[in-house]
Amino acid sequence: MAQRILIAEDHQPLAESLLQLLKNRGYQAEHAADGIAALRTIAAAPPDLLLLDLKLPGLHGVELLKKLRQSPRTAQLPVIIVSGVYKGDQYHQAGAALGVRHYLEKPFKAGDLLSAISQCLPAAPAIVQAATQAATTQPAPPSRPFYQHLQEAFHKRFSGQLLLNWPDARRMLSFINGAPAALRPGFQHRDFGDYLRAHGAISAEEYAYFANHGAFRHEVLIQMGCLSYGDLLDAKFAYLNQELEQAFGAPPAQANWQAMPVPELMQLVTLNVPQLFYRGFRRFPGRGADQLLATCLGKYPTPANAFYQHINFLTLDDEARLFLKQLDGRHTLADCPGDPTAHAPLLLTLVALNMLRFADQPTEPVGIGDLPLRTLFNAVIEEAAVEVDLPLESFTDLVEEAAEEPLAAPAPPATATAVEAAAATEDLAQSVRLMAKSLEGKDHYEVFGIKPGKFSVDLLKERYFAVTRQFGPDILMQLSGADATLVEEILATVANAYNTLSDVVKKERYDELLGADKIGLGHKGDDRFQAQVQAESGKVFIDMEEWDNAEKALQEAVNFDSGSGDYLAHLAWAIYRNPKNAASRVMQEKARQMLNRAITMERTAPAFAFKGWVLLESDQDALAEAEFNKALKLDARSMQARRGLRVLQEKKEQQKKGLFGRMFK
Length: 665
Hints:
Helix content is 54%, strand content 9%. The chain is of the alpha/beta class. The strands form four sheets. The protein has a five-stranded parallel sheet, with helices on both faces.
């Protein structure tokens, strides 16, 4: 089938000449005389290539191009700009920033245009031709989500080429023993070189040489002196991880497979596929999360044989490790600690990799077998890897605020008689039982007596503090046995509800789980609320290591609330960790100064932990240790600080070993 090219050009004689030229060359050419007509044509059926004049009536060519890049269907659409008005390097660079590889200034030669088209629409490789010929004799393969194709390749330990076909794009993904090894074109970037150019690692001129004369061969980047070999490997993994995580959100695609034998002894370092599933599902859980929770909440999850084969490939936090410990066949999914919705990406990963099975009745988990397992869930088995505390303790600011308020129900006075004290204790126990009974079967909104449509963060905090003051530590000390356990259950329920509703991302997922048509997010006109929304989003992006998005969201939060040291500290960390700023001394120094200013504004555990890591990476170990300890003093569960101290301890042990080695050598 002829490749389809749309010509967006308002000059009719030129448009007719281009139509005739392209049709003579075997292309299917169409014409749109203005920007609106071009946009409608592309929306109805995206072409294989757009030939775009910038000065179009109705909708300017630049605006048209921006709209195309914002849509997943047309983000990768090849575009050639032809312009007689916008000339010069600055316009060429602006076009390149919008994904345009070829910019032709009028008047141009027909040969230059045909050369540019041939580079944007190269002849189909042998695998594409083979797949096309097979499609004429065999039924078309069904369209499936990307993760299912990845799942099949992983379980079959597939080696070869996987051709993925969407209505508007075609991508080639190479595998070695079930792990992705190469991709072109990408989902966010056209190719690896475009990814490097977007991150400032190579220039537009270097990218042009890499794509055209270098034929996309990666060693060309080393030959040009753009990257060292080690940096090249790191960048390739980062590019492939990022692009394939984005693929989890792509619509279903058809796939054609062509196997290629790999020597048995070849053991190349490839992508961490279990971690890719986990990160992909965290970004795009999709409907699969809702279906899994709807069907399995009352079932008993237990590890399968593959559990111990793949579990240590996942990088997990303490909360996830605690959750995994409860998947023992003796607890239903609903009985596991925390909100199952928050662990849906992990559950989807375990199911996709056949690591988990669900039973209707309690069952015994599969044993480790003869695998000499040193660590489990990335932590040494003999160590207590997880501390079980109330989720409330992670909210340092709330703990401090609550500590300033007097308890609503103080202990009986010292002058009270034993009978009066006993009566007071019995009344207290009765109120605890009534409170526990009233929380049974309630959703997170009902726990605080808030209607979803009238939800606000201020109201949530007010109701939350009312409960924690009513059942504070002094109250817990007066009770014993079952009544004390009830207090702990009340606080755990309330903290779990608060954790979900105060987190923007978790709240949205919870609202979807409830099936509500429209759930309010509070006072949208309030700057403080907007700052909270942006800050929570930025922190989620930090966890996902999406540094550009984190930096953007946290900058918005600081703009809305410039007095928050916590927001400023997280923004500084996002700037410091963003790979595009790694080689810039100016940006690194800016992040350090911003972090120091944040600490003077507000002493928070994350700020001290971030500063500790900055000092640690500068080999200022003693100062780093002091900052980590400050963070733990404010929040004993600060994972950033704990990890930093572990790294310091390992560093000290290595130094001791080196000293002993030199002494005994």
